[in-house]
Write the structure tokens for this entry.
Amino acid sequence: MRWLLRIAERRHALVIPAVWLLLSLGYFTVVVGSSSGQSRVWESPAEIWGAVLVYCIVPAYLLFCAPFQWRRSSAAAADIGLLVGDPAGARVEILEPGFRVIATGTLLGMLYGLSQFLQTLPMLRGSGNPWLDFSMMGANVLLWTVGGWVLAWRLYAGRGLRRLGSVTRVDLYDLETLRPFARVAMLDVLVVMGTMALMPLQSLDAEFRWSNYEAGLLVTVPAAVVFFVLPLWGVHRRMVETRAERLAELQAQINGCARDDIARLDTLVAHRDRIRGIRTWPLDMSVVFRALFYLVIPPLAWVGAALVENLVERIIS
């Protein structure tokens, strides 16, 4: 499966999501436009089109982001390889998951997509529009197949970054060298948050249905947490250990310093306090939380508006 990932190195890689989006939207335009019977699965045309947009746009979005994730990971592997003294090993750890990892993720994604229609299968038998219903089911399976592939790929990269981070050299006076870990983690989290921001498309009819969001949120929320913590955990522990070692050295020097040598004592104490204030993550956490908060606002506002409108209609009626 390495060849599939290395497609991302090509300039024409972005043609794939564009073709997917055009073909899938064209297909569903024909299917929905030619539908005559009443579906027993979908409640309204707006709900159908909301689901269609999600099925078409989310896989295209993930495929669109994949080349950028690959290039960011490739650059990180080169930089981290220099830190650990093993450029080839770093590339294998981050960029070469192998067939078993990718195949397992893809298969699990496919099965997860199929499982979402187990409860609706009896309804499909008596549906007045089986072609539409089966098309929607197939599109959902394809969506989660692509999602499973991406999740497996990025989890492998995150695990590799964790292992490399646990053995990397940490210079407390030059933390910029650890930025590659943060860049990969943040891009993966932003891709997941972008997927979450697309979910409210299912509420085009201003009706909030938990069943439409449940499967996606059960995957994307844990994935966002794992994609952030996993690749940074190893280097975080190394930063904690290195800072503790340096603080112990400085404290030993302070203890051995003559108390009448005020200048040197003040220098050591100030240096110790500075080291205590050094962060133990390779990025500014306050900036991260603010960015994630701003990304969560749009989908929450959309869902909230749908809930309020639904509540007002029930009160009036």
Residues 4 and 233 are 28 Å apart (CA to CA). The two ends are 56 Å apart (CA to CA). Residues 2-234 form one domain.
